[in-house]
Specification:
The protein is α/β, with parallel strands linked by helices. The protein is about 40% helix and about 15% strand. The chain has a single domain, classed as Amidase signature (AS) enzymes (Alpha-Beta Complex). The strands form two sheets. An eleven-stranded mixed sheet has the order 1-3-2-6-8-7-12-13-11-9-10. The protein has a two-stranded antiparallel sheet with strand order 4-5.
Length: about 475
């Protein structure tokens, strides 16, 4: 009997190499667990039919000694990352029947390592949301409390790891979409430096913000996955050479921008939990320094100008002509209107309209250009502050997971869920959420996350602080 509840990538690697169990047996254990819990939680949209065949191939690689860190390890993939020959819908009706014709670069790298792809996971439509309630296929329920959300937009990916339906998962993070659900479900979520992981084969939401990142049980596992998927890619001009990675010194000083907590809408319990995390870091020998980031409070406003603008451009390709859903109208324009009107959900339509508005001739200078200017100011402030401190920590979210349906009809309240996470996307720096205590709500113990941010290309600092914090 394989104890998948206490299994990590690191432990599974040793067991597979020592022949304690095979990749096929490991895959069977996960498939059995998925069959028990997924119908209720709605984390997987599809479990692939060839999982055991993939595992057999991995076993042959192991038998030959062709072993990589992730050979035979079961993985869940967010529904907006392309796998050749597999359906991909980005959680939307408009991509009904679409089959990917090529592999995303991260998928190619993982295939080369012999990873076992379990299936594709539920998500907010085109990654637009903070709760996975915007999926065309229904919300994903939090494995810790089925009345609550998993967070989003990578809620399905995070749920698969928490429910023991995969050993790790990949998600995409545009404004906190890996870190926020990781906080809600009590796992580790990494948003790497922008450009450190290729976006080729990731369905674009906000091209200057999107990053593919891993969801794991431990920081050590997140580091293993990141090392496997990072690197320059000829198909992504924004990707970076590994030679440019900044191996900054061992972290000693941690900055805390206490001033942003005041307007973060945090509950008293969540604030107390964050203070306990700071005390723990002090106890681990780190110097804690109160810092000021004067313009960080504008990050959310900047994000919700730039991101919809890029959404309106990126989603123009979904017209009912090239692929996916097509609804006949009385003429070509009517085809477009009906297909996009019925294929896109409410939140996607809202963001397309906002983006089109801020890019329009009369408002481009008033909104979009100002947001771009302020984005650079925020980035410069982070760069300057990292000359004084090694990493910066904040809460990941203002509080624990909220109830399904609680704020789904209040877009502003939903957008405020990203208040602590969007600065890292705005500035392109790496950030990671790690489990950091719990709060008791309605008799249920719900997790909270601690967000750690580091200078560009300094993921190594995140891993070091994260491992010490969790005692790995």
């Amino acid at each position: 009997m394989i104890d998948i509840r206490n299994l990590t990538i690191k432990k599974a690697r040793k067991h597979l190499d020592d022949k304690d169990f095979s990749a096929r047996q490991l895959a069977e254990a996960y498939l059995e667990e998925i069959s028990k819990v997924n119908t209720d939680l709605n984390a997987y949209l599809e479990v692939y039919k060839d999982v055991l065949e993939q595992a057999d191939v991995a076993d042959k690689k192991i038998a030959k000694g062709e072993i990589s860190p992730l050979t035979g390890i079961p993985l869940a993939i967010k529904d907006n990352i392309l796998i050749s020959g597999k359906h991909a819908s980005a959680g939307s009706k408009i991509l009904k029947g679409y089959i990917a014709t090529y592999d995303a670069t991260v998928i190619k790298k993982l295939k080369d390592e012999g990873v076992v792809f379990i299936g594709r996971t539920n998500m907010d439509e085109f990654a637009m949301g903070s709760s996975t309630e915007n999926s065309a296929f229904g919300p994903t329920k939090n494995p810790l409390d089925k009345t609550r959300v998993t967070g989003g937009s990578s809620g399905g990916s995070v749920a698969t790891v928490k429910m023991n339906g995969a050993l790790f998962a990949l998600g995409s993070d545009t404004g906190g979409s890996v870190r926020q659900p990781a906080s809600f479900c009590g796992v580790v979520g990494l948003k790497p430096t922008y450009g450190s992981v290729s976006r080729y084969g990731l369905m674009a939401m906000g091209s200057s913000l999107d990053v593919i990142g891993p969801i794991t049980k431990t920081v050590t596992d997140a580091e293993i996955v990141f090392n496997s998927i990072k690197g320059k890619d000829e198909f992504d001009s924004t990707s970076q050479n590994e030679e440019g990675i900044n191996n900054k010194k061992t972290p000693k000083v941690i900055g805390v921008p206490y001033h942003i907590l005041e307007g973060g809408g945090m509950s008293k319990e969540a604030l107390n939990s964050f203070k306990e995390s700071i005390q723990k870091l002090e106890g681990l020998g780190y110097e804690i320094r109160d810092i000021k980031l004067p313009n960080i409070g504008y990050s959310l406003a900047v994000y919700y100008v730039i991101m919809p603008a890029e959404v309106s451009s990126n989603l123009a390709r979904f017209d009912g002509v090239k692929y996916g859903l097509h609804i006949d109208g009385k003429d070509l324009l009517d085809d477009y209107l009906k297909t996009r009107g019925e294929g896109f959900g409410k939140e996607v339509r809202r963001r397309i309209l906002i983006g089109t508005y801020v890019l329009s001739a009369g408002y481009h200078d008033a909104y979009y250009n100002k947001a771009i200017t302020l984005r650079q100011k925020i980035t410069d402030e982070f760069i300057k502050m990292f000359e004084e401190v090694d990493v910066i920590v904040t809460p990941t979210t203002p509080g624990p997971a909220f109830k399904i349906g609680e704020i789904v009809n209040d877009p502003l309240a939903m957008y405020l869920e990203d208040i602590f996470t969007v600065p890292a996307n705005i500035s392109g720096i790496p950030a990671m959420s790690v489990p950091a205590g719990t709060v008791e709500v309605d008799g249920v113990s719900l997790p909270l996350g601690l967000q750690i941010m580091a200078p560009h290309n300094c993921e190594n600092l995140l891993f070091e602080v994260g491992k010490k914090f969790l005692g790995e």
